Amino acid sequence: MQKLLFTACLLITAPLLQAAGEPAPANAHPLTGTWSWSLFGGSCTETWHYRSNRTVLSTSGQEVAEKTYEVAKLPDASGFYKLVETVVRQNDKKDCSGALLEGPGEKITRFIQFNPQRNKMLVCEKASLKACFGPVSKME
């Protein structure tokens, strides 16, 4: 009887769950999702949508770029995850800092660290808190 009730509930709620969008896999990396931060007094915003298929869509100022990424599954002893992004395509426009990406094939290595709730992260040049920006906030 319980199995029948469970199956009926599943059949009733499945369309509702599907309408809400696919949930992230239970083993999804904390990076998966949409992240955003504003700089220069809020006059420019960067947004990154990290997908579970290891692609990312990023916008920064006028720049729009599609990249692939590799991120460490676990942090190092200092709590940093190594993140390497590779540009697939971009629109040759300037980002919030006025810089341009070199183009397809360019690799960008960063080190990220999450807060305990995993809804904010710092983005650093090295696995150190000496050259970082953020916090970047998770939007979903």
Task: Outline the secondary-structure elements.
Layout: H1 2-19, E1 33-39, E2 44-50, E3 55-60, E4 63-71, E5 81-90, E6 107-114, E7 120-124, E8 132-138
Antiparallel strand pairs: 1-2, 1-8, 2-3, 3-4, 4-5, 5-6, 6-7, 7-8
Distance between the termini: 37 Å
Q: Largest sheet, described in full? A: 8 strands, antiparallel, barrel
Structural class: mainly beta
The general outline is globular
Q: Which stretches are low in confidence, meaning pLDDT under 50 for 5 or more residues running?
A: 1-24
Q: Report the oligomer.
A: single chain
Radius of gyration: 18 Å
Helix content estimate: 10-25%
Your description of this structure?
With 140 residues, the protein is mainly β. The protein has one domain. It contains one helix and eight strands, in the order αββββββββ. Residues 1-24 have low confidence and may be disordered. Strands 1-2-3-4-5-6-7-8 form an eight-stranded antiparallel beta barrel.
Brief description of this entry?
The chain is mainly beta and 140 residues long.
Descriptive tags:
1 helix, disordered N terminus, mainly beta, 140 residues
